[in-house]
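Lab channel / #folding
Pinned by the channel admin:
"Please post every new chain as: sequence first, then the structure tokens as a reply. Keep commentary short and put observations after the output so the thread stays searchable."

First post following the new format, from NK:
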Amino acid sequence: MSDTAINDRVGGASAPLDALSGPLHALAGTGQSRSDLAAGSEVRDWITLLKPRVLSLVVYSGVAGLLVAPGHMHPILAITAILCITIAAGAAGAINMWYDRDIDAVMRRTVNRPIPAGRIAPDSALAYGVGLAVFSVALMGLATNWLAAIVLAASILFYVFIYTVWLKRRTPQNIVIGGAAGAFPPLIGWVAMTGSISAEPLMLFAIIFFWTPPHFWALSLFAHADYARAGVPMLPVVAGARETRKQVLVYTVALLPVALSPWIMGFSGWIYGASALLLGLWFLKHAWAVWTDEQDEAGRSLTNDLPAKKCFKYSISYLFILLGMLVVDHLVLT
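Reply from TO:
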């Protein structure tokens, strides 16, 4: 594709933002003017609204989905697709912070976020999130294909309305069902490249879906006091630490065959298969340590949740290495 054609495809994507300037300001009122906001906030606060630590995994998994998909895309369009995934995830994070500003204000690890700390006004945060969301979807459609844009929009809507608004404050299964929100990026990357949905990207979706519960429940074991204070029904708060440890182990066991499915189904080769097996067994070792952690009669850890902290830390490395080996396998064996 020529550079002129690329410019033609992406050149008009800023128009949706211009159309948003009027209605966005009225989406949520707080009585604080935008001039007051500008005086009290910094660039880093606006970046914080995007949840940059979460974005690293979003970008990485989106790139993995794009790289292992069949076909070819102009590098500028490929970068644009990943940029759209990144902006969309950040937009969803900003809207999440707007909606959760009340519980963020009572949780120690979130109390200093820009909205509860008073550095950014809620209405401005919402306008920022919605504007970025619309822009990312429009640009994805113009730069790649509209199926990718639809899937991207679905990921934003799922995270905001299904997870944030509906599930998070109502059920301890919020992480299980809501895990789908974080599983979209590799699927979007694949669709951006191919313009279609097939079994292969759904396997990648399933891997992240099953990875999410043991990852977040390990975190919740040592952060349960924060969730209890905020009234969020995370599993340790509702069912107790012992049940949470069991579920960490159960979902880690379930993750192993799911992670091996690309190799089992012939989508990947032995490099990925061996890596998925070894990484999964090591994940099981950590999950078993969480389950057998020294506990009191109520199931509370007597080791300051050290195994859960190690499991949480490893789970991040697990997904990064797993997806990385899938890309390596694809580049070496195909």
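NK: Residues 1-39 have pLDDT under 50 and may be disordered.
TO: also worth noting, The chain has two domains: 16-194, 198-334.
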